[in-house]
């Protein structure tokens, strides 16, 4: 198929650019210089034209908006509280209602200025109840769903091992959200995927969605008009041990990766996934579905710009 990377265009709908590792800071220690500009440029060089920077709590949502302001026209933010951070509501100075009020005004202000395109990342995560118990997760998933309806932002959702409760709380509110939303980093079953698609939601696919043969069967079955692609960097890289790696033949090679202590300009860091890898995710999806990368990219581009706008509203 030759090198078509220049003609392909991508949206990375889930990238945690506010994570300190993208500024060379690991576990509170500055290991190498801030290379965020390089990371964004590398992704743009392979055709990644839009980035959705994930907000996961109040502070991170503010950071995501800062990045959207710094890179206007191609970085956009989401605003929300991740289920693993649900416990923050009850310990917030002024209480949970104050936190919800702040979240709402942050979302509305940044929506009006064009920097926020989705409400999230929020949802339920029963895999990691040690981080936030079930009861606050349920309570504040519901409260944030109501905020999303008020702000009329499409949803950027997280669901892990919680499908039944997730669907029960989500379904009744979707009528009031014409743009619906997306379940990102999807790793659920075929049946769960089909139920979410039937609700009118899109499915976000990254390296974590492509680990096992069962994952690949699910991705194969996602309708093309309901798929969106992401890296979820710095996590969810495609590894040689994953079922997806056999589909990487012919994919654009990533820059060389070195240990963070050996960092040099222009190189990737081992274990730090970044948005340039979006091309590999698209390549695997194309291989799994038996279609061209062009078809995957164009479908995903349409789906993402239709749902989130991303400065392409007239599309």
TrEMBL record:
Superkingdom of this protein's organism: Eukaryota
Keyword vocabulary terms for this entry: Hydrolase, Metal-binding, Nuclease
Record-linked Gene3D superfamilies: Metal-dependent hydrolases
UniProt keyword annotation of Metal-binding present: yes
Pfam families: TatD_DNase
Hydrolase in keyword set: yes
InterPro entries registered for this protein in UniProt: DNase_TatD-rel_CS, Metal_Hydrolase, TatD-like, TatD-type_Hydrolase
Annotated family: Belongs to the metallo-dependent hydrolases superfamily. TatD-type hydrolase family.
Protein name, entry field: Hydrolase, TatD family protein
Lineage: Eukaryota, Fungi, Dikarya, Ascomycota, Pezizomycotina
């Amino acid at each position: 198929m030759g090198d078509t990377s220049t003609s392909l265009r991508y949206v990375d709908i889930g990238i945690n650019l506010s994570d300190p590792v993208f500024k060379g800071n690991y576990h509170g220690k500055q290991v190498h210089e801030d290379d965020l500009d390089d990371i964004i440029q590398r992704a743009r060089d392979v055709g990644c034209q839009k980035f959705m920077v994930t907000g996961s709590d109040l502070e991170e949502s503010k950071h995501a908006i800062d990045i959207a302001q710094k890179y206007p026209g191609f970085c956009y933010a989401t605003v929300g509280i991740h289920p693993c951070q649900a416990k923050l509501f009850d310990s917030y100075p002024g209480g949970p209602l104050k936190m919800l009020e702040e979240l709402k005004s942050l979302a509305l202000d940044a929506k009006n200025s064009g920097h926020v395109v989705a409400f999230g990342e929020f949802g339920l995560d029963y895999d990691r109840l040690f981080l936030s118990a079930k009861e606050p997760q349920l309570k504040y998933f519901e409260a944030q769903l109501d905020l999303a309806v008020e702000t009329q932002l499409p949803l950027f959702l997280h669901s892990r091992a919680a499908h039944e409760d997730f669907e029960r709380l989500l379904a009744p509110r979707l009528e009031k959200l014409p743009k619906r939303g997306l379940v990102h980093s999807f790793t659920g079953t075929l049946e769960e995927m089909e139920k979410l698609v039937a609700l009118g939601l899109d499915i976000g696919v990254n390296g974590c969605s492509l680990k096992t043969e069962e994952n690949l069967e699910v991705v194969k079955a996602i309708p093309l008009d309901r798929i969106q692609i992401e890296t979820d960097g710095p996590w969810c890289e495609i590894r040689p041990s994953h079922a997806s790696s056999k589909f990487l033949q012919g994919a654009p090679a990533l820059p060389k990766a070195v240990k963070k202590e050996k960092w040099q300009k222009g190189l990737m860091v081992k274990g730090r996934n970044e948005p340039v890898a979006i091309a590999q995710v698209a390549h695997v999806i194309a291989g799994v579905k038996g279609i061209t990368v062009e078809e995957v990219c164009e479908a995903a581009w349409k789906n993402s710009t239709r749902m989130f706008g991303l400065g392409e509203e007239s599309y």
